[in-house]
Automatic annotation (TrEMBL), chains A, B, C, D:
Origin organism lineage: Bacteria, Bacillati, Cyanobacteriota, Cyanophyceae, Nostocales
Record domain Semialdehyde dehydrogenase NAD-binding: where: 8-147
Catalytic activity as recorded in UniProt: N-acetyl-L-glutamate 5-semialdehyde + phosphate + NADP(+) = N-acetyl-L-glutamyl 5-phosphate + NADPH + H(+)
Keywords, comma-separated and alphabetical: Amino-acid biosynthesis, Arginine biosynthesis, Cytoplasm, NADP, Oxidoreductase
EC id: 1.2.1.38
SMART domains from the UniProt entry: Semialdhyde_dh (SM00859)
Protein name per UniProt: N-acetyl-gamma-glutamyl-phosphate reductase
Compartment(s) where it occurs, according to its Swiss-Prot or TrEMBL record: Cytoplasm
């Protein structure tokens, strides 16, 4: 649309749901041009063979993954790979002066000990990891602007942290009382053929998984601890919901000051997110539906206080594949590139 | 099947989902015969007009609701009506020597003050209400056996209480830390034409409702208080899930004894429900899916302990229309009549 | 973005699904500004009360419907009303020099006798109706460009006619053998509280409706007759599918020339739609999924020939609320205004 | 229920959806006892590991498949295996005097040439195949009663043939005009991990597959030809619907006698199925919903005649896993054993 030059970007891991979201969203982004798609198992295939409905719009093949070549052809690289692969190629990409946005867990932890404990992989790239910034712009906007490497948050942590941050940052809750009961559509499981993600199994059913040991727990805790100023433990329980997209995190915590009422908290949340165009605080008595957020990069947050129990209940809804994944990575890129944070991202959810 | 005489039963409010479940289940019950169906708006229609797929099996019309006539023709009456109607006709039915199983909230509260506070209806039938027994057989089996009037539990309280009872009864948790995050299919909303229950609105979406003020809260609290031996407040949050049937209650509570491990609790739950044929405690590491329970009167319960936070997490899954409503009422009837508790109830869930 | 002046547009009937789609899509359209929203039952409410997720983006109230005022304030008006209402206000709007795009059936029929037979309403605005153009750009692009009044096609006719047109126009099939078996998501039923559209009823179920008498039949036949050059009767059967959005029309017809093979037809279809940016003909052996189209204004068409039976089978997939309704109306507006046909319309479907 | 002795039955291929349906239904059957479960990949596991919700009810392990041993321990064997395996073990089982009900395609064709053409496997057990009876009781009840080997119909053929049979048998339609547009839930694809059956892919989407070449085509044609008395070709198109269970077949055909009206056909269908307890013909103007049939062994059939086009439209709805698979096999067993055809089979569908 009249740009003299678009920034060349690449996507590694283009065949999964994160990849196809990135492709779709970046095609509409006014400042970039997707010039490279990479993949392991799908290398050699035209992208349109993986997603036929995009064949007319995306003319690129999926190529072998060679960081040297990617570095030569792109300025920004999105890595949408299984955990443990991004850290193998990122040092090379950084050396080639690429800006790197990793959607896996590899660069979410400043302390690789935690990573190794929960993800089971030994790593020795502490120096690189130490330069990574956690890509939640609502908390770390200015650091993201300076970074060359972003560890993009997980989908659950995004919803959980946007609900918890104002409370922890302002010291409004007793941190160890915080419980996150999260619910996700099945696209969060990726484009992998697993029995329990079949429609015949997952539709019209509901269950928890990864109880007390889901890997997003330490990720949430790391940021909560940073906000609280001391180490915080969070109870996190994810559930699989019979729907394609969307996450709702229902967060419970005990208020330090039992005199706080719902509208106080709504005011506090609105102030906290005043400069965050992608967060919307609901009106009094309004609770977010995941469908509101689906198709957009928005996070909707609703609040309630129970005067009987002294707890605050925060509900946050996002599209797990946009604000919870690809959209947030693009939001980070916008900030890194000095563009408007909302550039090229869908602003209005689909409904119904 | 060889019975000399079947017990004549009636269903008032046959046109709703509770009604059709009762009809369907009681048709297969070996000891009873459905001789009366009653309804307000549907009076005068053949039942098969409301549910065409049952037209070949159910030859009864829906009749006007006249307690005098119902009392003459039936020995057991199921009332499946909106809240506030059962209490109008129950005294008459009891006078006529009927056994009454009320599926509404009218007889769930021993203390009508609580009922009036949460349901907004003034009542003066304290004497009748005082004779009602709360129809959760796993807790009140022997009292149900003696009762003439049963206040059948709500769907959410059934799932919540089956998860909480062993913990409270044995004093294993700090009661005021208990949080119930419940998730229900939309059939819980009944066969009423409301915008937010349309498939186009509710499918592929998810949200909380009635936060901090859902009417099932005092019902859960009443029984929890009874079990704990003192007044208990519970945090209860229901969510609407894009599926037809099923409830999952995810219950969080802090253990009094941090030394308890998961397998201890599994042992304790199994002992608690030893004589309860409709409750199944899952194996270690197994979490219930609502689909397991759907189509049966079973409640599946899974357990986890978080040694990091000292909390127990209990997950209970039921079919909201069977164990959560019509099936449980029939289970109560079986007990009241001196029959086997499992008689005529579906034992194996549908899958997939 | 940088226009000196945007064209003021109005939407009458903003509260329904057609309305909210128009609002959402027109908010992103670079050449127009939505300046008026009208409704009957919702008049006086802020639009954000009807659709809370859009409250932050749409600041307009829903106003009373007064054609005089609408005519003064807008240049283009979209009417998204129940059948029989548009024809009451359209003459006035045309008099005020508005361009009118009616999404109801009121102006789809050049012959009001057919309208009256199938829709039951007597009308005497033959003169106005005669000036209306059927808003299917792929067939009537040049007439749309000249028109002041557009009768936008129904959702089923859009999918059906895009599948049938090349066959009829080229005389490739025996017209009276044509059968359209159509399947639609439940959003096609609108935002109305009806029992059979409840999730609890419609989910995990499937059925036909309106068999041999659905009102879209004469609409399809009128255009087919126009294409064939003689009167054509079509067998049309719609089905309700347990999903929110999307229509698939599966079309069967006997080929005149049994020697035609699948790839001949793919070539013919591609030629027919060469200048139609919103129609995509699938590759050999590829059949469209409705999800491919959802979220975009695209129609995907797949083709197969059965050499055993001599029939062609055409499958066309659209988003019923976009290409089947609001998007197509905007496409028509683009043409009427002399803008690019694709302006402001979503080009890439959502997936998954 | 007081039987002196139950008939020992075995299920080979117990781990799939056909298997689990058989297990579940046969557990409730009053005349049989499941004594053997066999499987390839799941051999050695307790059945409850495959389907944890049934662990409390089914105490059997999945065993290796050895026809010699199966023959010694059982009198009736259900084979629920991928195509091409049943024919390997059936001769041995027959030799051991077992009654065999094969749910695969292996014994559906009297002419193995057709089988080989469509299924690609060379076979030389013509003699055995010639003794097999096609297990559609509504057509071949008396032959099933005499048979030792049953080739149980596919799910689509069951729905299609129950809709077509009265028309073909009575010569009411022009056979070559018959088109079957069929729609199935995704459980028809079995418990196999395939990308296109993932909830994230299949939910909220819809598409045709196997167009003009689905293997159920020759199966339908074989029986149609038998009924018509001459070779008949049928147009058959299956579609995948975003639901778990259920098939709807919408059948179109031109009537020979244009004077026939809808109620004539309803009368004819009712007469045809007079002695078939599992087929229900809908009232005038009533069209079956798949949900009516789900959970039962019933087939609901609705009828319409289009006086404008001279076509009859027949809609038949079944539960693909019960009447379309496991239930029908049990119905056949009942007939083979001289029991009531309805024994042990669910008579009332689930709703909602």
């Amino acid at each position: 649309m009249g740009n003299l030059r678009r920034v060349p970007v690449g996507i590694v891991g283009a065949s999964g749901y994160g990849g196809v979201q990135l492709v779709r969203l970046l095609m509409d982004h006014p400042e970039v041009e997707v010039v490279y798609l990479g993949g392991e198992s799908s290398a050699g295939k035209p992208f349109g063979e993986l997603y036929p409905h995009l064949a007319h719009a995306v003319n690129l093949p999926v190529e072998e993954v060679d960081p040297e070549i990617i570095g030569d052809r792109t300025e920004v690289v999105f890595l949408s790979l299984p955990n443990g692969l991004a850290c193998e190629m990122t040092p090379k990409l950084l050396e080639k002066k690429c800006k790197v946005l990793d959607l896996s867990a590899d660069y979410r932890f400043s302390d690789l000990t935690t990573y190794t404990t929960w993800y089971g992989k030994q790593r020795n790239d502490n120096a690189t990891a130490a330069t990574a910034v956690y890509g939640l712009p609502e908390l770390y906007r200015s650091r993201i602007a300076e970074a060359q490497l972003i560890g993009c948050p997980g989908c659950y942590p995004t919803a959980s942290l946007l609900a918890l941050s104002p409370l922890l940052k302002q010291g409004l809750i007793v941190p160890e009382t915080a419980i996150v009961d999260a619910k996700s559509g099945t696209s969060g499981g990726g484009r992998q053929a697993k029995i329990n993600f079949l429609l015949a199994e997952a539709d019209n059913s509901l269950g928890a998984y990864g109880v007390v040991r889901h890997r997003h727990t330490p990720e949430i805790e790391q940021i909560c601890s940073d906000l609280a100023g001391h180490e915080v433990m969070i109870q996190f329980t994810p559930h699989l919901i019979p729907m394609v997209r969307g996450i709702l995190a229902t967060v419970y915590a005990t208020l330090r000051d039992p005199g706080l009422v719902r509208d106080d908290l709504i005011t506090i949340f609105r102030a906290f997110y005043r400069n965050s165009p992608w967060v919307r605080i609901c009106e009094t008595g309004e609770y977010p539906q995941t469908k509101w957020a689906c198709g957009s990069n928005l996070c909707y947050i609703g609040l309630e206080v129970d005067p009987r129990t002294g707890r605050v209940i925060v509900m946050s809804a996002i599209d797990n594949l946009i604000k919870g994944q690809a959209g947030q990575a693009i939001q980070c890129m916008n900030i890194m590139m000095g563009w408007d944070e909302t550039l090229g991202l869908p602003k209005l959810g689909f409904y119904p």
